[in-house]
């Protein structure tokens, strides 16, 4: 199979979808890997390293899309890429369709096969291709939050961990999944007082066992959230419903009850966000202020640490990419239930129910397109 690795062109997206080591594994199996010039440079991976592994370096993004059978990306295609995608071309990347109707309709029109990292689901219900970036984003959410609590960034002017004789910051984390757990570990490690909410009691029991004493677990409901936002300095949105838009847990009216200079970090913003007033921002312009509350809503947080993120992502995606290259998408998805869950749009048909429901689109059963 001919595999294309285009350079990411989303604002301040510095990751690349495949490391030279990952490319070598595909080349060893007889596949061709086409890498756009400088695709890996911002991740510390220049063209020369890819060439040494046998990759072909192409000058433009158009060349990569034109010649590849499978495109491996990091982020969803942006508008400039829509017309480059070809019918029957397999695009393997993060799509987050349910929060982006224009992208969904463009991919339907493209007649391509869109296999989304974020909905690939294993037999235990885990999301193996989302986990590594969730781990990065969860940890980064606390770094970002701690920074934006500083007065020069319009925050409350409070040190996350405090000092002897001074109370630490209070951190509220909405969601006890991978993002929330990593955020809690980081915040607790810095000395903050942490409260983590979830609706799964088994998960709360697990978190209570593994997290340190300065972390409190609490059942998530509107009553608790409304009370807690009043007294917390940093609030992390860490809610994910696979393939669907996240619910709004922090509403606009709650902002007026919060401490001026408190910080909201919505890690779920690329899936619609769980904070009503959040909208996607970029690393170039990461924050905005509403009702004296600082909002940090960067949709590609791991892009700020591209080397770590690129290696972590390739570690997770490569086994699936190999299967797709070896067997073709249809056979691979038929034989691997996890990959089948990743199919969202196939040859103009929406085959993931949550995406169809998000925009009232016609839904087609995935088994029918695989038949």
UniProtKB/TrEMBL annotation:
In Swiss-Prot or TrEMBL terms, this protein is called Alanine dehydrogenase
Among SUPFAM superfamilies, the record links this protein to: Formate/glycerate dehydrogenase catalytic domain-like, NAD(P)-binding Rossmann-fold domains
Q: Which Pfam families match?
A: AlaDh_PNT_C, AlaDh_PNT_N
Quote one Gene Ontology molecular function term: alanine dehydrogenase activity
Please report the organism this UniProt entry assigns to the protein.
Portibacter lacus
Q: Which SMART domains match?
A: AlaDh_PNT_C (SM01002), AlaDh_PNT_N (SM01003)
A Gene Ontology biological process term: L-alanine catabolic process
- Every copy of the Alanine dehydrogenase/pyridine nucleotide transhydrogenase NAD(H)-binding domain together lies at 149-297
Q: What is its EC number?
A: 1.4.1.1
